[in-house]
Q: What sequence folds into this?
């Protein structure tokens, strides 16, 4: 009985002890391609264990009245499933958050979903290049849904 208890406690301890948490910050520039191509800028802050990560991301795209393309601001909380490779780390992500879209007199704030993927590629020391593609499913009332975004940015892990 004591051996079984020791074995069970050892198994629980082994499962509970995970790799140390890692955090990272990303500043990015890219393109929102829906309904016309406009620059997007933003940042992301995340933390994770070996394979699962979590991040908060904020992005801002200006409106283009000539193309009837609204401004779009998003604040999303995401879960990442990422490869545990240090020099090239592909990932898939999905999340939920709030968006604000505006064009002329139109203004919409609502809940949105996003999904996508990308990679974090080691450059030097803790500095990595991050490339990312996302699809945003915006709530009812949005002028353009789904919205597509691609970006590249500098990522620092610590």
A:
């Amino acid at each position: 009985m004591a051996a079984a208890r020791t074995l069970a406690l050892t198994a629980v301890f082994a499962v509970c002890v995970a790799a140390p948490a890692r955090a990272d910050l990303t500043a990015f520039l890219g393109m929102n391609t829906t309904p016309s191509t406009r620059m997007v800028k933003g940042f992301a802050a995340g933390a994770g264990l070996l394979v699962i990560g979590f991040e908060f991301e904020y992005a801002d795209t200006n409106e283009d009245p000539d193309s009837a393309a609204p401004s779009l601001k998003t604040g999303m909380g995401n879960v990442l499933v990422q490869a545990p490779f240090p020099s090239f780390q592909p990932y898939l992500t999905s999340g939920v958050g709030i968006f604000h879209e505006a064009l002329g007199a139109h203004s919409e704030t609502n809940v949105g979903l996003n999904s996508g993927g990308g990679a974090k590629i080691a450059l030097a020391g803790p500095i990595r290049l991050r490339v990312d593609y996302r699809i945003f499913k915006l709530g009812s009332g949005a002028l353009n849904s789904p919205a597509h975004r691609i970006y590249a940015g500098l990522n620092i892990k610590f």
